[in-house]
Amino acid sequence: MSINIAIDGPAGAGKSTIARKAAAELGFIYVDTGALYRSVAYYCISAGADVSAPESVEKLLPEITPELRFIDGVQHVFVNGSDVSDKIRTPEVSMAASKVSAIPAVRAFLFDLQKKIARENDIIMDGRDIGTVVLPDADLKIFLTASPEARADRRYMELKDKPDAPTYEQVLADIIKRDHDDSTRAIAPLKQADDAVLCDTTKLSLEESVETIIGMIKKVKDGNNR
Ligand code: DC
To answer: Which residues have C-beta atoms less than 6 Å from ligand 1?
Structure first.
């Protein structure tokens, strides 16, 4: 039986960085499910679709084959055979991913792929609805959060040296808007599962956050080996 760890939480809480490091240390595969929603959004934008109109997104789904490949332990996202891992990280794709992720047909479309990866591997999977919808029987559920300002600070530091970097105020405004949209949508809203452990990283350094999470996962792993 594979071990499944679910990490959910809002944008910029450090889920991906923390989960990636913990997975590398513990020999798990790290699965970033946000990348799947981003890959759908990216395809729709490239095809000229209006991502705010569910029908135009739904119409394109049969043309999209998203795939996660793990190359040297690192997740790459492919759409129809092309590696789009870098192209899906722009602010435009972030906003579009939030929009397409509210469409039930898109969530259904990506559900089986996420389940299959979890069935076949020891994974740390991060997203918004992993503990509540995708892996309700996960061995451990963590809800990772931090204040909007702390999250905007971290995201800004990642983006500030890139071409066309947004200002800190834009990053904060985007985070607040995405939090609102992700938690108030009708389907699979961002919410802590009843049996998830809350971990607030506002005052923790990255190293402290990683250590906390690794400690939690090790207990589960050791329990499973007994
Ligand atoms: O984690 P991220 O910023 O890469 O996610 C992009 C968008 O996808 C985000 O606005 C919420 C959505 N998402 C989701 O609805 N469910 C998931 N399991 C993962 C991401």
So the answer is: 11, 33-34, 37-38, 94, 97-98, 101, 127-130, 178, 182
